[in-house]
Amino acid sequence: MSGDSVLQVRDLDVHLGRGTARQHVIRGATFRLRPGEAVGLIGETGSGKSTIARAILGLVRPSGGSVQVDGHELVQRSARAWRRLRREGAVQYVFQDPLRSLDPDHRVGDSVGEPLRIRGVASAEVRERVAEELRRVNLDPALADRFPSELSGGQRQRIAIARALITRPRVLILDEPVSALDSANRVAVLRLLEQLRASDVTLLFISHDLGSVAGVTDRTLVLHEGRIVEDGPTSRVVNAPAHPYTRLLIGSAPTLRSGAIDAEERALLRAELAASEG
């Protein structure tokens, strides 16, 4: 891996649980994000996508491997150092459901500006930056005076993204950011991510839906049972997938394929996948 990476994950292992229930969830994951790059991380529910994100953020302790942001090793840090890193905002996280991250009793402006107030930024500057970030995510700054319950799901998700962006993070991790939205709000948020892709923000877009990732990312990682089985330019992964699991995912995405795969083709791909794992 070259030195121009803003995020480097190397040979990452994560075990969850204890005793006989202990599971090897992430197995030797290795990838990097370059500055300004938009990378998709796709896989079925339970494949370990969110666990990788939580390991990067220090919310899950890796059992092995390396995580570096701007060349600084994170895995060996203490819990206090991890908390300080999150407060500094170098890596920010956007949840699938914005209601999990937006306090229903706080006005939008208070929630978006909270990371700056924690740093001791003056109130006038906080208000100015809040307005700037709301405009950046295509929202009227007047919404700063509203409560989350007064807004649509798509507006709330864009507000969660604005709060993540206000610290000017080096990496923005989005965990299934559109899966809880209706079609109209889904399109609005995906368009916003396309705009962010054209800026200097480095994105890690986590999803089970390759169709959502395809139009937003430069490169796609495919995760299967805790292992990254494919890593390449998104156009190549979509049009010429190398791994049978990726071909199964594409066959299940009608927006990426003229027709769904039939039972016989699916069975052949499953057999090929089993052979590749053997």
Description of the structure:
38% of the residues lie in helices and 22% in strands. The chain is built from ten helices and ten strands. Strands 6-7-8-3-9-10 form a six-stranded mixed beta sheet, sandwiched between helices. Strands 2-1-4-5 form a four-stranded antiparallel beta sheet, with helices on one face. α3 runs parallel beside α5. The protein starts with 6 loop residues before the first strand and ends with a helix.
The structure class reads alpha/beta
CATH arch. level architecture of the largest domain:
3-Layer(aba) Sandwich
Please report the first level of CATH classification, the CATH class of the largest domain. Answer: Alpha Beta
The coarse silhouette is globular
Q: How far from one another are the termini? A: 28 Å
Strand composition percent:
15-25%
Number of helices: 10
Instruction: Give the neighbour order of strands across the main sheet.
Output: 6-7-8-3-9-10
**CATH topology heading of the largest domain:** Rossmann fold
Query: For this structure, what is the CATH homologous superfamily of the largest domain?
Result: P-loop containing nucleotide triphosphate hydrolases
| Backbone CA Rg | 19 Å
Uncertain runs with pLDDT below 50, 5 residues or more? 258-262
Number of domains: 2
Mean pLDDT: 86
Tell me about the largest β-sheet: 6 strands, mixed
Residues in helix, %: 25-40%
- How many DSSP-defined strands? 10
